[in-house]
Write a structure and sequence with these properties.
three-stranded parallel sheet, globular, Rossmann fold, two-stranded parallel ribbon
């Protein structure tokens, strides 16, 4: 089954979270507002567009407040927040919610992410549409969103 759904972590993957929170703190913004376009990493939208051009469905999920979901929905097919789901990474329940809320298609979990979550696999249930595979060392992946995208699609 070919790769059809890609789910991104939000903080420091799509959104420059550390920089954004530092700016909000320096500006005295309380409570912090929702993320906006200027909070995205410069290559985030081009990467999402390239994935869409290849026919992939996109998701974003992370340990974040629910207020950030609406902004992200403009750019992906589904969004999940730890606040709305009531569970944070690295808990298994977080990844189970990603699996449950995603559009149809194969879901790949990287073994490194599962190991970081102190679990051998993200789900005990094995299905044809959920694939667990090793994630290459960072040194083996081409730099930039285009290189990473090509590498991921070659592996699928």
């Amino acid at each position: 089954m070919a790769l059809s759904v890609v789910v991104f972590d939000v903080g420091e993957t799509l959104v420059a979270e550390a920089t954004t929170y530092e700016r909000w703190e320096a500006d005295g913004v309380t409570p912090p507002p929702a993320f906006e376009e200027s909070d995205l990493h410069p290559d985030a939208l081009p990467c999402l567009a390239a994935l869409r051009d290849r026919g992939l469905r996109l998701g974003a999920a992370g340990n974040m407040r629910a207020v950030h979901e609406e902004f992200l929905r403009r750019h992906v097919d589904f969004v999940g927040s730890s606040e709305r789901w009531g569970v944070e990474k690295p808990a298994a329940g977080f990844f189970e919610r990603v699996d449950r809320d995603r559009p149809c298609g194969r879901l790949d979990f990287g073994v490194r992410a599962a190991a970081d979550a102190d679990r051998a696999e993200p789900s005990r249930e094995r299905r044809d549409d959920v694939v667990v595979h090793p994630v290459p060392d960072v040194e083996d992946v081409p730099r930039g969103s285009a290189g990473l995208l090509d590498h991921a699609l070659e592996e699928s």
